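Narrative summary of target 7.
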Amino acid sequence: MKRKIATVYPGNEAIDLKEIAQESLPFITELGFIVVESSPNIVRYQRNGIEIEVYHEHISHEIGLGVRCLGVRYSLSDVIRAVNPIAAKEFRDAAATTPEEMVVGLKAAGQMLLRYGSSVMKGDLESCEALAVQRKAWGEEYALDVLTNQLRPQAEEAFRGENYLKVVELYTRIYPRLSPSEIKKLAIAKERSKG
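Modeled conformation, tokenized:
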């Protein structure tokens, strides 16, 4: 007898993620993907080096999709962001604790994957490379945001303390993130540090 893989939540019946994924996302197998892994929290499909994973987080109850191409895993929001950054900002994985909620959440995620990731699912090398380039750019932007949050207060304190050389050094490192008033402070600091 074949044993079903399922997650049981208090007050809910057993939830079979593989069965729900097949019901909610029939296009995956229709595109020729086959199941290569199935557990209570993840179902992984593969075809020609491309993987699609369906997951259900046990603690947060988030349910969603991810894609792996050229050996790198991308969230569905990464895939969306590569095509439509505005839609990606609005996108959130659904939370689900019942089979019905899971079906609704996966169908919605599946529609987003079809809309924004169809070329990736088809194994389009250029689309996979574009995702890799985008991820690098997003990482650099994020790093600059973190650096800005760290250096901005230091630059403000240095400006108040009239340490203009330090102001120039700090503001120059985060120049793309400076506000108009900070750009004026930088100009003042440059001028005053000369004398």
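The two ends are 86 Å apart (CA to CA).
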